[in-house]
Structure formats: C-alpha cells, structure tokens
C-alpha cells in the first residue's frame, strides 16, 4: 500500500498554520516531500476568511479586534470559519496522482471520503450527499451569510440531515491543497457577531438558518468527543478513505523555514489579509 505522510502539528498562530500548508504544497511540487495529511489547531482561536472575500465589507473588524481572536486570509476559497473548538485538516497531493481525478469536484469527493470515514469511526451516521440537483443545493444552502458552513459545496457531509464539515480547495503548481474544519463544538453567536449584516433582524434570520443547516459533532454524538479522540478517528479515516498507509512524521527543517518566511512576508501582513 502506498505511504503518505501523516503530521499532527502543535497549535500554531493563524499565519503559521496557513504558511505551513503552503510550504508543504510548494515542496511537494518540487518533489521534496510526499503527499501529506496534516491535522492542526489554532492559537489563538482564529477567524479565517476565504481568498475572495472582501474583509472590510464582510467582517466586523471592530468586533474582531475586541474578541481577541486571530485573523487570517486563506489561500483557498469559501467563507469565514471560526477555528476554535475544532480540528482542522489539510491534504496536499499532486494533481496528477493516480488517486486524484482530473475533475475538481471528483477530487474533492475522493479526499472527503477521509472525512466520511472519520465521522463513521466516531459512530456517527454520516453520509456524503451529491449536490447535483437544485433541490439538494437548496436543502443545504442558506440565504447567504459570510459564514463558511452557510455555503453549499459540491458534496456535503451530513449527519441527521445537517452539514458537519466545511472544506475548501486550491490548486497551485500542479498540487491540490484541500483543507477544512471539523467542528467539535461551535459558538454560533460569536461567529455571527464577527460578520457584517444590514440589520440585526437579518443577522438573527441568518443565524436561525445556519443552525438549521449545520451541526457540530458534539450536537449529534451520544457522548462528548474531545480533540484527541477526533484525531484518533480521522487519522485512520483518511487512511481508509484514500486507501493509503499514513506514516507519522514531522515537518522537515526546510518546510519550517519556508513556512516562517511565508508567515512573516504574507500571512501576517495587512496587504494579504485585508487587500480585497
């Protein structure tokens, strides 16, 4: 069975978390590191926004600063994500890898099988729903707040009819980077306090819609699930979903050095985070 790297990094700053993902992508494109599955957490808890979002227009920057949360723009698309009581994953693999379909949507599906198996390893009745029809898209979409879990994807992972994971993908230098948020718990009011709305009434309506469409692991699990148990479930989940052997290792010195440079010159700068 093919071997991929499996890395669990310590809690990092928002800039470093995004920089590490990009560093792995760059060095994988140069053939210096193998395909990689990484799990990570954030210090401090962080609001990340999608590459195409307009930060000043969509995010309540005053509330964000008062909250003490970190802030970063991702290299991937999608909407705002609150990285707090959750586990973040990333998968980095070449576009021309035999396991990766050329279609973006089908590659997304293959990688997301790891998530599906992880939820199932926790004893949850998770399923992957194709959003091929307008009816299915409507079922899992919302009127359109800036929150990531409000945004329908090509395939949705659902438990009890509600979305349980938010993922995004980018392709650069012939490499796929897919990463996403696996929510253990979530402070919905905190998330929505960080987003801009035309009125309080619209905000309340969006929050209600969000709660009807999205759910966390501990809302559907019959028992509390902690971070370490989640890692223990999703590691084998990605191994079985991708049909590979995951070999536990650490970031290389070159990856760390490149990540530190990217964090300093890109992901911690206002030019990157606020530019749109």
Automatic annotation (TrEMBL):
<dbReference type="GO" id="GO:0009107">
    <property type="term" value="P:lipoate biosynthetic process"/>
</dbReference>
<keyword id="KW-0436">Ligase</keyword>
<dbReference type="InterPro" id="IPR045864">
    <property type="entry name" value="aa-tRNA-synth_II/BPL/LPL"/>
</dbReference>
<comment type="subunit">
    <text>Monomer.</text>
</comment>
<dbReference type="InterPro" id="IPR024898">
    <property type="entry name" value="LipM"/>
</dbReference>
<feature type="domain" description="BPL/LPL catalytic">
    <location>
        <begin position="31"/>
        <end position="246"/>
    </location>
</feature>
<dbReference type="GO" id="GO:0016874">
    <property type="term" value="F:ligase activity"/>
</dbReference>
<feature type="active site" description="Acyl-thioester intermediate">
    <location>
        <position position="148"/>
    </location>
</feature>
<protein>
    <recommendedName>
        <fullName>Octanoyltransferase LipM</fullName>
        <ecNumber>2.3.1.181</ecNumber>
    </recommendedName>
</protein>
<feature type="site" description="Lowers pKa of active site Cys">
    <location>
        <position position="163"/>
    </location>
</feature>
<dbReference type="Pfam" id="PF21948">
    <property type="entry name" value="LplA-B_cat"/>
</dbReference>
<dbReference type="InterPro" id="IPR004143">
    <property type="entry name" value="BPL_LPL_catalytic"/>
</dbReference>
<comment type="pathway">
    <text>Protein modification; protein lipoylation via endogenous pathway; protein N(6)-(lipoyl)lysine from octanoyl-[acyl-carrier-protein].</text>
</comment>
<keyword id="KW-0012">Acyltransferase</keyword>
<dbReference type="GO" id="GO:0033819">
    <property type="term" value="F:lipoyl(octanoyl) transferase activity"/>
</dbReference>
<keyword id="KW-0808">Transferase</keyword>
<dbReference type="InterPro" id="IPR050664">
    <property type="entry name" value="Octanoyltrans_LipM/LipL"/>
</dbReference>
<comment type="similarity">
    <text>Belongs to the octanoyltransferase LipM family.</text>
</comment>
<comment type="function">
    <text>Catalyzes the transfer of endogenously produced octanoic acid from octanoyl-acyl-carrier-protein onto the lipoyl domain of GcvH, an intermediate carrier during protein lipoylation.</text>
</comment>
<dbReference type="GO" id="GO:0009249">
    <property type="term" value="P:protein lipoylation"/>
</dbReference>
